[in-house]
Input
Amino acid sequence: MRRALRLGRFPVLLTLALIVSLVVLPGRADVVVRVCVLLLAGYVLAQLLTRLRSSLPERGTSPVDAALSTRPRRAARVPELEKIEREVTLGLTTAFDLHFRLRPTLRRIASELLRARRGIDLDANPQAARRALGEQTWELVREDREPPLDRFGRGLDLDSLRHVVVSLEAL
Output
């Protein structure tokens, strides 16, 4: 009942406005009637669209849209691993990068492994560290290693790096 009263309010007001307009403007009756019919048609159309919208299910994301919008995430890389990869690449390229970039990382790794697995301090007991690491690895990580004279000279070759890694893993 309330809904019918609410829906009928506008047409009743429109009819009253039509009657008043016809009394006030008797020579313009055809224009006034056309305007009222147009307003009534707009009102009916708006009510129909409102009912149609409320009868439809709520719009959500379709399964197809959801599947297309989710892209597989790239696996997050560990920043420290990326840093080591860069150091290895540069260390294989030039002697400067080997000495000032890759060597400190290899030295830190060797020091920590020697201390944790063998109880040897790399700097305090260099002879024991040399025996544990092997000659090639020791030459690379020893504290008193001189910087290269030719900064753009060849870095470490891949086989030597592989040997260093194997000796560190053997600790």
The chain has a mean pLDDT of 87.
